[in-house]
Amino acid sequence: MSDVHQLLLRVRSLGANLIADDKGLRIINGSKLPKEAHAYITKHKQAIANFLTSNQHSDCEERAAIIEYDGKAPREWAEQFADILIKKRPPGVSELDWSWFLAMCGRIIDEAPERAA
User: Fold this and answer.
1) Are the C-beta atoms of 26 and 18 separated by less than 8 Å?
2) CA–CA separation, 117 vs 40, rounded Å?
């Protein structure tokens, strides 16, 4: 599975959620997901559970919460920006260009219309 975090964002955007706990992987509000999503989640449940219990996921969730609550950004934007922040600079992109990109993403979020509301 290439990107569990993107899967989680998609599941949450549909009004459902995935949780890994001592009972295994659980789907919250699973009725909001299309039928094929359940099969996909079942097929990749170990990778999803591993991601949910990893430090990377915890770091991303913490950053997203800070961006959402302190920055008053929409949750979806906060999660996507947090995901970008924890990723490594892509090959072929200079440190200066990567810093500029991150700064522009932050600026867009800071100036979001929802912030004024």
Assistant:
1) yes
2) 38
Residue with tokens 């440190």, as numbered in its chain: 95
Residue 67 CA to residue 107 CA, distance in Å, equals: 12
Question: DSSP for 44-96?
Answer: THHHHHHHHTSHHHHHHHHHHHHHHHHS---HHHHHHHHHHHHSPPPTT--HH
Query: What does the block give as tokens for 9?
Result: 């964002």
Dihedral angle at the C-alpha atoms of 44, 86, 27, 31, nearest 10 degrees? -100
In this prediction the pTM is: 0.53
5-63 residue pLDDT tens? 788 878 888 888 888 877 788 888 889 999 899 999 999 998 888 888 876 667 788 88
| pLDDT exceeds 60 at position 103 | yes
DSSP three-state, residue 97: helix
